[in-house]
Amino acid sequence: MNVLLVNPYIHDFAAYDLWMRPHGLLKIAAALRQAGDTVSLVDCLDRKDPAIFRFYKRKQPRSDPYDCGKYPKIEIEKPSQLRKITRRYFRYGIPLELFQERLTDTARPNLIMVTSVMTYWYPGVQETIGILKLRFPGCPVILGGIYPTLCPEHAATCSGADYVVSAPDTLKGHCANGVDAGSCSPDEIATLLSVARNETIPPAYDLLERNNAAALQTSYGCPFSCTYCASKLIAPQFVQRDHEAIMTELRNDGKLGITNIAFYDDALLFKADSHFIPLMERIVAEKFHFFFHTPNGLHARFITPRVAALMKAAGFKTIRLSLETTSPERQQATGNKVTNEELRRAVYCLSEAGIPPHELEVYLLAGLPGQTIGEVKSDIDFVHRLGARASIASYSAIPGTADWKKMVQEGVIADDLDPLWHNHTIFPSINEEFTVDKVRELRKETALLNNTY
Question: Can you list the domains of the chain with their CATH numbers?
Answer without folding.
Answer: 2-195 (3.40.50.280), 212-450 (3.20.20.70)
